[in-house]
Design goal:
5-stranded mixed β-sheet, binds zinc ion, alpha/beta
Length: 337
């Protein structure tokens, strides 16, 4: 899929770009961006997943042209090599996709070249492009929004290695790491149907669950955003609790893959809370109290908060469609080398 350097943006084929998230669907066509509520489990908790998928297909087809190219950033676990969609807690709960979603789209609009990629891969492609001039060996992108996901690219080879199912970085569904005093939060549910996952505590819906369990009755996304900047005690305690599992994910990446020298952190939660979110993360990371923590300023160099201007998954989807990064199965990549 990779064929030399990505072309100049000004010469690219006119394209409809679509971002399917758990809360919103955003589209961009002819430079005009629009936003509509997503037909998702988060927005419609009582509607069966199969019906939600039908509605999503209808919405995507309705904004597609008769001919041309559509690139889609999809907030679902999927095989970026084949386009096979596996599932998505925010979109469909614990339901596992049993349809060839991309095939359905291609049959509905056969004149359109459909390019559908995992949203975290799209975020990675945009972030990797923005830091390419720093020549990091590998670069990671962690999104904290209605779900939590990670993707890592090797920039030397321009590849994102995935497992035999086409997956990489589903860290939101790892067991959650909690401080002893908040260990009782380990029972909280996750959109995937499990309990005690990183996303159970640290995703957007997870933070609301934690706030409810801690008895913060006035919680809302907007209250949290304002209260953290004002140093409110409840908000500070909540922020410390919900950033700890994310810090442990970052620490695990560094310990096992030290060549990932830059990790961008984006997504609605991290972008919305901004600098206080980064400060809380760094406090956890620096407070490890172990020789494994590294140099005091190491985490400042590694962790980039992408709140201004934020990662552009629409641009990332287009970069991927143009081959900026190749998605390869780890085993195949190893055989070639
Ligand atoms: Zn989960």
């Amino acid at each position: 899929m990779t064929d030399g350097a990505a072309p100049d943006p000004s010469t690219r084929t006119p394209t409809v770009r679509i971002d399917v998230g758990g809360t919103w669907i955003r589209t961009e066509s002819d430079g005009v961006r629009r936003r509509m509520p997503a037909p998702s489990r988060i927005n419609h908790p009582d509607v069966p997943a199969t019906v939600l998928v039908d509605r999503l297909v209808d919405q995507l087809v309705s904004v597609a042209p008769r001919a041309g190219r559509v690139v889609v950033s999809l907030g679902a676990a999927m095989d970026d090599v084949t386009g096979t969609v596996r599932g998505s807690g925010p979109l469909w709960g614990d339901w596992l996709m049993d349809r060839d979603l991309v095939g359905v789209l291609r049959r509905a609009r056969p004149g359109v070249a459909w390019h559908v990629f995992n949203d975290v891969t799209c975020g990675l492609a945009d972030f990797a492009d923005s830091v390419a001039q720093e020549s990091p060996a590998s670069v990671g992108y962690l999104t904290v929004s209605s779900g939590i996901g990670l993707k890592i690219a090797e920039l030397g080879t321009g590849t994102v290695k995935v497992d035999e199912d086409g997956l990489q970085g589903e860290v939101g569904h790892l067991p959650v790491a909690l401080a002893p005093e908040t260990a009782g939060l380990g029972h909280l549910s996750c959109e995937c149907g499990g309990t005690g996952h990183v996303a159970s505590v640290s995703s957007g819906p997870g933070i609301a669950r934690v706030a409810g369990t801690l008895g913060i009755g006035r919680y809302s996304t907007e209250w949290f955003r304002q209260a953290v900047t004002q140093g409110d005690d409840d908000a500070s305690a909540l922020l410390a609790t919900v950033t700890r599992p994310v810090a442990e994910v970052l620490r695990a990446i560094w310990v096992t893959q030290p060549w990932v020298t830059v990790i961008g952190i984006g997504g609605g939660v991290a972008e919305g809370l901004g600098e206080p979110y980064r400060t809380a993360l760094l406090k956890h990371l620096r407070g490890a109290g172990s020789y494994a923590a590294g140099a005091p300023d190491a985490w400042e160099r590694r962790v980039r908060l992408l709140d201004h201007p934020g990662v552009d998954v629409l641009r990332g989807a287009q970069l991927l469609a143009e081959g900026s990064l190749a998605i390869t199965r780890a085993q195949e990549a190893d055989h070639r080398s």
